Amino acid sequence: MYSTTVLTDFVAQHYLTVPNAGPEGKPHSHHYEVELCFRGPALNEFDYLVDIDDAEAALSDLEDRYRDTMLNDCPEFEGDNPSVERFAKVIFERVTERVTDDTVTELAVTVWEDDEAAASYDATV
């Protein structure tokens, strides 16, 4: 299995909407780092798994969409708790709409909200 990984980072804000969220229930910022790991069993005719320009464009779109944004105000979080786990799935959905290489069969998204805590979402595409 081949894999290609790309990274980006940005600051965004959120607050948790669960009962008894404590300090996390108040608006606060995180310096998020997002890691996209594309996987597949074969390379394309140019010996690439994924077009790196498309992957970087997807990262740029993520930065543009979420940098300095209150995640709670984004329609994709409406009715959901904007946890780091939910954020990883939201990013997965956005990236799989953008990067459509036939050689990519899986995508793993890891979102770090600080140096010690991260959540991932991975699935077939």
UniProtKB/TrEMBL annotation:
The entry lists its GO molecular-function terms as:
lyase activity; metal ion binding
Which cofactors, if any, are listed as required? Zn(2+)
List the keywords (alphabetical).
Lyase, Metal-binding, Zinc
Asked if the record carries the keyword Transferase, the reply is no
What is the official name of this protein in its record? 6-carboxytetrahydropterin synthase
